[in-house]
Amino acid sequence: MYRHILIPTDGSQLAERGVAHGLALAKSLGATVSFIFVVEPFSEVSGRFLEAVGTYAELRKEQATSVLNGAANAARTAGVSCETIQAENGQPHQAIIAAATDKGCDLIVMSSHGRSGLAALLIGSVTNKVLTHAKTPVLVCP
Fold first, then answer.
1. Which residues in 119-142 are b (16+ Cβ under 10 Å) and which e?
2. Cβ(96)–Cβ(38) under 8 Å?
């Protein structure tokens, strides 16, 4: 049924549920997996904050590498073929949708923070935006 699953992760405990669920599904179906970590860049900054922003950006890229390596190790342990994608985009949902299309994924498996009401309206939800805009089916893990 599904042959290539995209699993977005940010390394959070909640995202790890999506990783675990996606890997279990991939293993049961004999599907391959692509993991994606989206790093959101800062807007142009100048002056005394420039160095701090540069340091933060490097730390986020190191975190992305670490999280993706951990996910790849989990896939190897589960016997699931995988690749990792580190993307930089101010709109994570767009990067996720683009990766699903570019890689030919037929399912996106991701977790949701479960925000509702005013929190969802003010903060927004990457998962909700993926659900709204993706042409690829999306499986959401609570």
1. eeeeeebbbebbbeebebebebbe
2. yes
The rounded Cα 142 to chain-centroid distance in angstroms is: 15
Assigned token pair, 3: 């042959």
Report how far residue 65's alpha carbon sits from residue 62's, in angstroms, rounded to the nearest whole number.
5
In the block, which residue shows the tokens 């042959």?
3
Bridge partner residues of 110 (DSSP): 140
CB contact set of 123 (below 8 Å; sequence gap of 6+): 115
d(C-alpha 26, C-alpha 14), whole Å:
19
Dihedral, 39, 41, 57, 142 alpha carbons, nearest 10: -30
| pLDDT 10s digits, 19-60 | 999 999 999 999 999 999 999 876 655 566 666 777 878 898
Q: Which residues pair with 35 in a beta bridge?
A: 7, 84
Nearest to 33 by CA among 8, 75, 5, 14: 5
